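Your task
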Amino acid sequence: MITDAIRDEKVLKFKVDYNDVRPQFKALEAEQDAKKLSAAENRQALLHPDRIREITQYILNNFRQKTHRLQAGGKGFNAMLAVSSVEAAKWYYESFKTVQKDREKPLKVATIFSFAANEEQDAVGDIIDESFDVSAMNSSAKEFLAAAIADYNALFKTSFRLDSDGFQNYYRDLAKQMKAGEVDLLIVVGMFLTGFDAPTLNTLFVDKNLRYHGLIQAYSRTNRIYDATKTFGNIITFRNLEQATIDAITLFGDKNTKNVVLEKSFREYMEGFTDVVTGEARRGFVDVVKELEQRFPDPAAIEKESDKKAFVKLFGEFLRVENVLQNFDEFASLKALQNVDMDDPAALEAFKAKYYVTDEELPALQAVQIPSERKTQDYRSTYNDVRDWLRREKSASEKAESSIDWDDVVFEVDLLKSQEINLDYILELIFENNKKIKDKVALVEDVRRVIRASLGNRAKETLLVDFINQTDLDQLGDKTSLIEAFFTFAQGEQRREADALIADENLNVEAARRYISVSLKREFASDNGTELNALLPKMSPLNPQYLSKKQSVFQKIAAFVEKFKGVGGQV
């Protein structure tokens, strides 16, 4: 029973959005009568090119938000799109190819179906199983699926064919790539909507009528537990399944089952709520932000240990509620509004059109105060600083003398990683900002802010700043040239600093180079085994200074690896 599994925290709740922003199709999207939906004119209306294109564009516009890929380079999650028929799958697949044709980084889209893939369901809403037998498909469906498999083969360097064994092998490989997060969006009719479990899948877009058992089965593809960033299964329906969802949920319990199975609303997360099931009171985003800005207007000025702890707990609360809210379209529009010039009528109209905001709704959005991106980066930087201080810099004697107990503090590392930016993104930012700013001091300040807010690239701050200061960026005509120039610079600095470290510490040259190279390859230094001992200068292990020397060398190499991991080259 899904209610028991959710209460026992074995699976997650569902957050269901009923997306009905296409007024000309609204009545048909709300239709529940199977006979009316199967009528030829209604089937064609639901497959109208304008409707398919609008939904395709919505998915592309919101995909990064829904799958937690807001930061460039973030792994995030992947998604499925459940459609009503093979014909619908074909229309959507072709629409994604067309709309993404000129995109620099298009989503990796795949599809799968077989014979008997259609809208019909039995009395309890079971999704009809699809067979691996492709011989019964008509020629049009076969031709389309063969072309889609060919696209997949080109993408993943495979060679699957549309015969019985080839199709089964394609199914298995597709399942593997979905679980690995390598396919961004999978378009399905019935296959994969039952029995397929992938914790990396968090979003289901739905353009088909579901009910009862089949609805719960399909929704349940999204609610497998992963980590702190995945708080619920994300469901976005392009048909009005609100009553069908309530009916399916109440089939498994009573009127209160809805509170167990479905997530709270945007308004509740913004303003706060008391959980009906647990009785726990939860503060809203508005109150958390208000306290954060009142107590810590300048996070860089935090010095007292008690303030550090209070800040970490409060900003952790901010990260948790923001992680939930980023799944809501309303929050995306709220954040986007911060960057709109309200004195520019064209920019304002473009914003309202993109986020489906009316003139009546705009004042309410304007009234909500959220931290700017720059302020959030400053908060994140201080949060990382305190974490580093607690882990590395606070001495054992300080910990012993401190009256502050940190045992009840949990650093939200998973949430920080979900917002992580990669090195290529930082380098592209340097290129773009240099074109705008033309001032290295201001450029360095902006880049420092971004790097310090990054969990994985903080150690590269001096490397990146030195690159900016020592390079004529105006001579680099495109992003690729700047990226290549950085890696050349970084590899030179890596060799120079490695030579200096080996010489300064009087290390065994060959053993040290070998140990550092292995550490760079695996992206961390380890003091397990004998490799570290082998590179140390000759000294008896009984020498009182041996252990302190070993620890000192290890810490310096670990810092070196943090700084240069990912830049390539030889030491």
